[in-house]
Design goal:
Shape: globular
Structural class: alpha+beta
Number of helices: 7
Distance between the termini: 30 Å
Radius of gyration: 20 Å
CATH architecture of the largest domain: Alpha-Beta Complex
Bound molecules: manganese (II) ion
Largest sheet: 8 strands, mixed
């Protein structure tokens, strides 16, 4: 894999690096500063020019540092964080779990990419511990809520897109122009406290059950490195501003809990793609900013071994997962380490403390 990030060697300041498989090339003479922000904001011509110079640098025998010996940092300043809900299987599973006996997909789902604005300030880089959050919970059989540590701490396996070129406030970005604004992608673990979420989310949506931490992988992989496949036409056909040739990224993904793979899936399961998400997000005139993180929503396939969250993998805790060490899990326990992995994107890992 190849990607752009910020790394440091012992005793040195963080700087821009370009990862090629298990090596990191120092590209701080091409990308200045301790984040990728200026580079990202430069737009496609600057991205292509820089990539060409990096290719030259590597071709002329740049001396890379082994990946395992460097420390990795947040690659960019997260401007806004938006989380979509674009996997049909995930939305259907959650509908069945949360609203049993009703139509699992709400009537709007196939007409627009559902999403919410999340908390940019608590996006953290892979390797950062996640402190179990406390909050209000009210079990269904209790009369009143209590405050305390979440008992239902979950993961969400997502693909996150990183905006490079900003757009003008008041001017929607058309679906044809959407990809000009997106530099690349990272893996996202949208940690979720299901008990806090269940009590607080109506009627305005996710809030403190999500905002305590969101982890990203440290290497931003340019879109040009990610394979695409055509998709079935969407039915019903979307409105004009969301209409284009249907396609999806084709990226194998896995969820690893304490060293054991508990789910394998693929981004091809996403119903709405990033072009449609950008067109929808800006359709009211909201602007894109450099560093916006646009996450796909949990990615689940149709097979139970391909679900991207524990609430689905254990069906709301009713079917505990049996792990190789003989233990079982419904939701995460203290000390658990979760890693989301993709050969094309690297990994994002976090331990519950
Ligand atoms: Mn999410």
């Amino acid at each position: 894999m190849t990607g752009y990030g910020i790394f440091s060697r012992p005793g040195e300041a963080p700087r821009a690096g370009y990862r090629v498989d298990e090596s990191v090339h120092d590209v701080s003479n091409l990308i200045r500063g301790q984040t990728l922000d200026t580079f990202l904001g430069g737009g496609r011509s600057e991205w292509e020019e820089t990539q060409a110079r990096i290719d030259e640098l590597i071709g002329s025998g740049s001396d890379p540092t082994p990946l395992h010996s460097v420390q990795l940092h947040m690659p960019f300043s997260v401007a806004d964080y938006v989380d979509f809900y674009s996997s049909e299987e995930h939305a259907t599973n959650l509908g069945k779990i949360l609203r049993p006996g009703q139509e699992p997909l709400l009537p709007n789902w196939k007409h627009l990419p559902i999403g919410y604005h999340g908390r940019a300030g608590t996006v953290i880089v892979s390797g950062t511990d996640v402190k179990r959050p406390s909050g209000q919970r009210k079990p269904p059989d209790a009369d009143t809520p209590t405050f305390g540590p979440t008992q239902r701490l979950d993961i969400e396996l997502e693909l996150g897109f990183v905006v490079g070129s900003p757009s003008m406030h008041g001017e929607p970005v058309s679906i044809d122009e959407a990809l000009d604004h997106v530099f690349g992608a990272v893996l996202v673990n949208d940690w979720s406290a299901r008990d806090i979420q269940a009590w607080e989310y109506q009627p305005l949506g996710p809030f403190l059950g999500k905002s305590f931490a969101t982890s990203i992988s440290p290497w931003v992989v340019p879109l040009s490195e990610l394979p695409r496949i055509p998709r079935q036409p969407q039915e019903p056909e979307p409105l004009d501003y969301l209409r284009a040739e249907p396609w999806a990224y084709d990226i194998e993904l896995e969820v690893v809990l304490n060293g054991e793979t508990i789910s394998s899936t693929n981004t091809r399961h996403l119903y709405w793609n990033i072009e449609q998400q950008v067109a929808h997000l800006t359709s009211n005139g909201a602007s894109l900013r450099t560093g916006d993180l646009l996450a796909s929503g949990t990615i689940s396939g149709s097979d139970p071994g391909s679900f991207g969250s524990l609430i689905e993998l254990t069906w709301n805790g009713e079917r505990p997962l049996e792990l190789a060490d003989g233990s079982t899990r419904t939701f995460l326990e203290d000390g658990d380490e979760v890693t989301l992995h993709a050969d094309l994107l690297g990994e994002v890992t976090g331990t519950i403390v």
